[in-house]
Amino acid sequence: KKLHVYLRNTKKMGRMHAPGKGISSSALPYGRSVPTWLKLSPEEVKEQIYKLAKKGLTPSQIGVVLRDSYGVAQVKNVTGNKILRILKSKGLAPNLPEDLYHLIKKAVSIRKHLEKFRKDKDSKFRLILVESRIHRLARYYKTKRILPPNWKYESSTASALVA
Hints:
By secondary structure, the chain is mainly α. Helices cover 59% and strands 0% of the residues. The chain has helices spanning 2-9, 42-54, 59-70, 75-79, 83-90, 98-116, 121-143, 155-162. The termini are far apart. The model has no long low-confidence stretch (mean pLDDT 91).
């Protein structure tokens, strides 16, 4: 009973451009050992990751395929490294971080919509919000040295980044 009250009273960080302060999220199992029913070795899992990355899948898509088709719940528990780190060690990591890539893709699609429907004020507003998120995320990745310091988001060249 006390734990429930404690959880409800904790302050949660709100969404950036929405009023929500939801606390629901997935919970990983505490045990970090490899499941006994998993027959794949760490090397086989890595080979599968390389194969899927060469097909052009993103790290999260690779994780979904491994989970659904091969029964690998958490790659980190099996191999000791996350999917992106495994890809970076082999030089197969995408040049843009995945979350930034999807934001740019969203901005490009909103821009394409606005060319067709110029009077859509709501879409124009949403585009401003998406682009502000892109700039904020780019600033973070520059400080973490994931993006080069001279990298800049420009709407004119954005469609070439996600094509």
